[in-house]
Amino acid sequence: MNCRHNKELEYFVTEAKKVTDKGKVASYIPALAELSEDDLSAAVYFTDGTCISAGDVEKAFTLQSISKVLSLALVLIDHGPEKVFHYVGQEPTGDPFNSIIKLETVNPGKPLNPMINAGALVVTSMIKGETNADKIGRLLDFIKKLANNRSITVCGKVAESEFETSMVNRAMCYYMKEHGIFQAEVEDVMDVYTKQCAIEMNSLDLAKIGSVFALNGKHPETGEQIIPKDIARICKTFMVTCGMYNASGEFAIKIGIPAKSGVSGGIMGLSPYRFGIGIFGPSLDEKGNSIAGIRLLELLSANYSLSIF
Ligand code: DON
Predict the structure, then answer these.
(1) Which residues are catalytic?
(2) Contacts of 100 (CB under 8 A, 6+ apart)
(3) Is 165 close to ligand 1, i.e. is its CB under 6 Å away?
(4) Distance CA 280, CA 35 (A)
(5) Quick check: 307 pLDDT over 80?
(6) 179 lies in some domain
(7) Is residue 170 over pLDDT 70?
(8) Where does the chain bind substrate (predicted)?
(9) Residues of the domain holding 20
């Protein structure tokens, strides 16, 4: 992709980088512990097809929780909102992304929203396909279309590393299965989910996907309406209310754009009708969001008046 290095963006990236040592890379998925703490890169893909970047924007990283908003879009296309929201709610939790507590205390078995792990596992169980390979293949094809990049793949090492260790996610699956939220085998859901989280791309691809949401589901390059407008709207609303987990309220006040983070350090954000932004900064704050990524968005939002509120 033709994306030009930009001095102004580089200035903000350099500023934001100063906070990387206040965070830590995720280590509960062993393969993620190998990421380097002081990385920070960003790409901005404007809806007119121009693109600017700063830092090593070709570096690939896994989507982790950013994939949740993309699997949600696919499943909403597959089944429609009424059916999807029968199985997963629409409210923020105020709890960490992997918390199990409200699964028992509120509406037993039904996760509060699709951006927390429990909710995303339900969404993954609803991806259409005969086999696990069909399901992950369909999601990957959808994501390739969103990024307009056929070379996006699943990182086998990260998928395997999470599959071997993800016991709390399994526990939530069993709890939900007990309550009839899904019928699928837990190991099958875990297989698709860990591969979904391990879909790998760089900040340029991520910025481009953000720009599709900025245009309400229409691809700025191909002109194709990939996500129906109503479904893009639902996804963006979840990004605002739950996209940064239990930091979403503060993020909405300080930055004020739809955004979704992942524990590998990625953030996908967007400014409606203007641009999509892809950030990679693996050092995380205590809530699991990229610490320098958030700082960068704070600087950009203040300087370019990005808040939608
Ligand atoms: O299920 C998990 O724990 C990871 N695959 C994804 C979590 C994640 O990215 C949360 N992000 N901040």
Answers:
(1) 65, 68, 193, 245, 263
(2) 118, 168, 171, 172, 175
(3) no
(4) 11
(5) yes
(6) yes
(7) yes
(8) 65, 117, 162, 169, 193, 245, 263
(9) 2-61+200-302
